[in-house]
Model the fold of this input.
Amino acid sequence: MSAAEPTLSLVPSPSSPTITPERPCWGVYEHWVTNEAGRKLRPGVYWHGFKRAAVGDDDSEETARPITDDWLATPVIVTARTTNSDDGSEGRLLRLLTNSGAKEWIIPMEVFGGSGEDARRALFGMGAIIAPRKRGQFMEYLLEQRPDQTIITTARPGWHASGAFVLPQRTIGSDTVRYQAGARSINLYSTSGTLEQWQTEVAAKCAGNPVLTLAIGCALAGPLLSLVGVVGGGVHLVGDSSSGKSLAQLVGSSVWGDPGVFAASWDMSKGGLEIEAASRNDTILPLDEIKRADPKQVQAMAYSLANGQGKGTMTREREGRPKLTWRLLALSSGERSLSEHAAISGNAAHAGAELRMVDVNAGTRTHRAFDQLHGLEGADFHRLLTVAVTHQHGHLGPAFVERLLKDDDRPGLLQDFAQVRGQFVEDNAQAGRVADRFAVIALAGEMAIAYGLLPWPQGSALADCQLLYGEWLSRVGSGNAEDRQILAGILDFIDKHGSSRFSDVDDHAPDAKVFNRAGYWELVGSKRLYLFNKSALVEAAHGYGLSRVVKALDGAGAIAGRDTERKTKNYRLPGGGQSRLYVIDPVAIDTEGAGV
Done:
């Protein structure tokens, strides 16, 4: 807390103001006071009353009775009535004066339906002290307060319906909206140092490093997603161990808070991931080491992150709880791609999941994850930035949002995005989603440069994003992602089983060494064509139906033989009989680029 904030003093002031409470009543004082009888009262919450009259005494004149000032707790002031915009529940905003300074907490009204023990425990945890024998009376004091001010609260950080941007310690753009969290919630959005120091010690060293500028752009793009209509998703930094991927995540995290607290890990359940994502709504979710994720769940987790909605649950009363929601970009890292990690469990890779978590090369650049070391050795560069973000963090994100709200130009923002988006070329809707992501990251970086928040040359953030997007396009090739995945699966199937589950269709006798037959092969000139039966074709493209597989093959020109108006060709089989088979040319598939 700031040094200027009031704290409790154990020493009475020589000039403690005199109070004359209208007894009986509650009183709360942040400083020492003197009552009407000349007695000094320490700071705190009081019940000002009268001593109970003895039997037979005449109590018609209360003023004649001795007064009492019962100390209930250290100063706790009920400053406002609160209404939660998430679920409509009410609460009270409390201001606490503790030995470590002034603090605020929103107490839910529902705690008054029980003993209030959990609420008192939370207050003790924040530094308040409540008299042991006055705890019930203290709760009565809180309940009876009727503050005039009303504020709106939310447990969801980021953009609020009011137009404000809500963070745990501050709300940008409104004085009547507050973040409401549990008393023991960790503040992800802490600050240290100054924005100017972060610009000098961190941002300046990121210039010329597309992976690092991408990380900062990802963090700044979070508040733009809903404004320009881009869905969430993420980028996945792929590179060997100790290449610099984690440093990029620390740099991205430093935009909003302490990297040691703000960054998360893939080592959690799907439900845990939803909680982490919701707590970083409209910002960024760094996820370190994909190898720690459950291979069976990792693709579903990628879908969930991009879709921005958690799983529905029910209360004990069988009422539906509100689903967790979020919109953000994830900044993931790992030595394997998402599809490679999913394959460990035997699950087929889903092209949709890969598009939602796009691979970025962070291992084979000029200096592994980096392109420019600014005259330093790799280890020194890594160490310098790691130390810098530890001490300088949490300023850029809020400063960026302040400028957004100051400009308040939604039509102009949409035009700027359209202009940037036009510089990312794509040939299908799926690549378009990835282009959207790189474009909004580029836009965020360029806007921060124009605002004077990033010390980079104008156009550099856009150029870096175009470079990384171009690298992605060159790796995956053009065309539909599902088509590429199907064709790659068939090529891989032929490589694995071409000699064990296929045999020459022109043999006079069946090959007894072939078990679990997938089909046959035939030579046409110098080219070997593979004749798949239906079940093998579906097996090869695991996860896709037969009609979808045939569509991909036909589109690639890989069906090398067919009867009229059919996708198959009728063959006489060794040993007798005949069958309709799919005639596949692996050379045509390879030419299409499925093996990339």
About this structure: The chain has a mean pLDDT of 91. The longest strand covers residues 76-84.
